[in-house]
Amino acid sequence: MMRILSRAELKNELLRSGIRPSVQRLAIYEYVYRSTAHPTAEKVYEALRDELGSLSLTTVYNTLKLYADAGLVMMIHIDDNYLRFDGNTQMHAHFRCNECGEIYDLPVEGNSLGCLAGLEGIKVTEAQLYLRGVCKKCLQQNYIS
Amino acid sequence: MMRILSRAELKNELLRSGIRPSVQRLAIYEYVYRSTAHPTAEKVYEALRDELGSLSLTTVYNTLKLYADAGLVMMIHIDDNYLRFDGNTQMHAHFRCNECGEIYDLPVEGNSLGCLAGLEGIKVTEAQLYLRGVCKKCLQQNYIS
DNA sequence: TTTTATATTTGCAATGATTTCAGAAGTGAA
DNA sequence: TTCACTTCTGAAATCATTGCAAATATAAAA
Questions:
Q1: How confident is the model at residue A111 (pLDDT cuts 50, 70, 90)?
Q2: What letter would DSSP give residue A22?
Q3: What residue ranges do the domains of chain A occupy?
Q4: Nearest CA in chain A to B125
Q5: pLDDT at residue A145, rounded to an integer
Q6: What band does B144 get if pLDDT is binned at 50, 70 and 90?
Q7: In angstroms, what is the C-alpha Rg of chain B?
Q8: Which residues does chain A have within 8 Å of residue B95's beta carbon, measured at their own beta carbons?
Q9: How many angstroms is C1' of C26 away from CA of B129?
């Protein structure tokens, strides 16, 4: 588990990736980095609009795309309707509850790609494991009702 | 590896799932079942339109959704731009080449979820493993040029 | 400090895959 | 044949995401 970074350290992360840390960029990075809710672009926009005084949804999309290309955030495609973003770039799986729509992180232990065959001669740069089903909370509620 | 089913057997598969095998439905099922290209709805539509004389893109979408809910086909979310479908419902991973866009199947051996923690009390109904990178063919071409 | 060049942000319009919807066509039972 | 019900169709609507050109901010040079 990596230590939680301060705002100044997040700024340095951007610089290290060759990205100039404008006010908007740092705010967007910090929000996604600290969130555990896998926010959509819209969510990031709503959360920061007031705080920043001025912000465009286009900027949010552009910036998150920039970060995804730089490997600073992960794009999560588990939702049928929109793209989500995750500031945690360490290997982990995602579980989406079909009842409540919530997305949970699942830790991955050991070699997650050990079960895969046919990787010879292929260059893998990214791996995502998505699970769906019903979460603990919804299972209990369904049982009661 | 499961035996390849005949058209009559595919029809029975539909009936067993409580789906009435109309001309359109059977054609769509058979096309996705026999394809290894992870076709989009548009692709299915183009491939069957002439053969069937009459077909609506809406029907293709509705039918594929019906099959996905019934567990007869898998929805593949690996492509940023559109939904793809896979008639192979056995556990396997998908690899998408970032250069050519091609999607390949990767066999999964053993317990693919063995590396996961935090599954207690959760009901998992679906697992998808997506990989991205550069495929063998594109790696060779990049080296030559 | 001003000028200048460049990078970033903004808001609106466009895009396009997917869905909605209401009517048409098909199907099977009586 | 009629009736009730299911399926299909095509056009219009939806809406997340992207394109674009103008506005603004920033940093370096003069």
A1: confident
A2: -
A3: 7-76, 91-140
A4: A133
A5: 53
A6: low
A7: 17
A8: 122, 124
A9: 41
B110 at the A interface (CB within 8 A)?
Answer: yes
The string of pLDDT tens digits covering residues A35-87 is: 999 999 999 999 999 999 999 999 999 999 999 999 999 999 998 889 999 99
Tokens standing for residue A49: 């609009």
| Residue in A88, A114, A135 with CA at minimum distance from that of residue B106 | A114
Q: Would you say domain B91-140 falls under CATH 3.30.1490.190?
A: yes
Closest-lying nucleotide for A22 based on CA to C1' = C8
pLDDT of res. B115:
86
Name every chain A residue with its beta carbon within 8 A of the beta carbon of B114: 115
What pLDDT is stored for residue B145 in this prediction? 53
Q: Measured from the CB, is A55 under 7 Å from any atom of strand C?
A: yes
Q: Which fold has domain B7-76?
A: Arc Repressor Mutant, subunit A (1.10.10)
